[in-house]
Amino acid sequence: MKTGIKIALSIALLSSLSFGGEQFAMSDADRAMYAEMLENNPADMMVANGEELLGEYCGGDAGLAKFLGVSEDDLPKYIAGFPRYIKEFKQVVGVDQVLQGLMSKNGHKPFKLKSSDMFDMSAYVKTLANGEKSNIDINANKHMKEAYALGEKTYMTPRGGRGLSCNSCHSSDVIGTVLRTQPLPDLSAKGVAVAATWPGYRMTKSSLRTLPRRFQGCMNNALLAVIPLGSPEMVALEVYLTHQAKGAEIAIPGLKR
Ligand code: HEC
């Protein structure tokens, strides 16, 4: 893994977390723990588990490349462009759904999208693209265009008890504002670049999480109806935000509060 890149990116994140005037997002103790974890991201072990699972259930990197119809050499660039429209699935899918398809093709019962085994395995696959630039193409075909439009709509529409949308807290005019001690993060390539830093290790949850799982965290916190993993709306939301962070250099697993 390209640790140098990872550390540079995470230090940028650390300084953005201390933003927000007197109210710091992290206590000094948390900050010290964060610095220590940078040296040794606990998620590295989970990613290693993911690599083993991919070998056991999917034929490793070679099996995955074959299933996707690309050479092993082209796999990193190809992975850096997910979610994608894949013909066999007849829909736009994330890496985790591809892995489910491959597992079942190989005669295994697919891991659930919400299982830690799936988080580990899809995180490992995403690390194959480390050092590449996130390169999603929302104009690749009409399915991607539709997914982007649906994602934007899902992001902008107030869907909860408090009348909030994702955009209420993540639009460019509120970024950096402090909400209950947490500065509102910029999700684009100018900020935390979600597409390039998830799956990530969440220190507050002591576990590795995928980007859609992180979305569900905000849905729960902000009382927005929780969208199921793998649903067209959820994949579309991932397409929308991945596009906002397009061009950022991928450094996975991220380390998150
Ligand atoms: C009530 C305000 C609020 C709403 C609404 C909200 N968020 Fe958030 N979001 C936050 C805050 C605050 C954080 C930072 C929390 C932290 O650091 O633990 C955050 C963090 C995130 C992150 C992680 C950023 C990182 O560090 O990588 C993602 C991704 C995200 N939100 C996506 C969404 C999506 C998608 C929606 C809509 C479904 C949404 N949020 C709705 C307040 C909100």
Automatic annotation (TrEMBL):
Chief location bin = periplasm
**Where is this gene product found?**
Periplasm
| Cofactor stoichiometry and binding remark | Binds 2 heme groups per subunit.
The lineage's top-level taxon is Bacteria
Amino-acid positions noted as binding substrate in the UniProt annotation, renumbered to this chain: 214
Q: Where does heme c bind?
A: 166, 169-170, 218
Q: Which enzyme class, named as a word?
A: transferase
Reaction catalysed by this enzyme: L-cysteinyl-[SoxY protein] + thiosulfate + 2 Fe(III)-[cytochrome c] = S-sulfosulfanyl-L-cysteinyl-[SoxY protein] + 2 Fe(II)-[cytochrome c] + 2 H(+); S-sulfanyl-L-cysteinyl-[SoxY protein] + thiosulfate + 2 Fe(III)-[cytochrome c] = S-(2-sulfodisulfanyl)-L-cysteinyl-[SoxY protein] + 2 Fe(II)-[cytochrome c] + 2 H(+)
What positions constitute the catalytic site?
218
Q: Which residues constitute the signal peptide according to the record?
A: 1-20
Pfam families named among the record's database cross-references:
SoxA-TsdA_cyt-c (PF21342)
Q: Name one GO cellular component term.
A: periplasmic space
GO biological process assignments = sulfur oxidation
Keyword terms: Electron transport, Heme, Iron, Metal-binding, Periplasm, Signal, Transferase, Transport
Named cofactor requirement(s): heme
The catalytic activity of this protein is classed by the Enzyme Commission as 2.8.5.2
Q: Which InterPro entries match?
A: Cyt_c-like_dom (IPR009056), Cyt_c-like_dom_sf (IPR036909), SoxA (IPR025710)
- Give the molecular function GO annotations: electron transfer activity; heme binding; metal ion binding; oxidoreductase activity, acting on a sulfur group of donors, cytochrome as acceptor; transferase activity
Show where the Cytochrome c domain sits.
151-250
Describe its assembly.
Heterodimer of SoxA and SoxX.
Family statement: Belongs to the SoxA family.
Protein name as it appears in the record: SoxAX cytochrome complex subunit A
Q: Look up and give the organism this protein is from.
A: Sulfurimonas aquatica
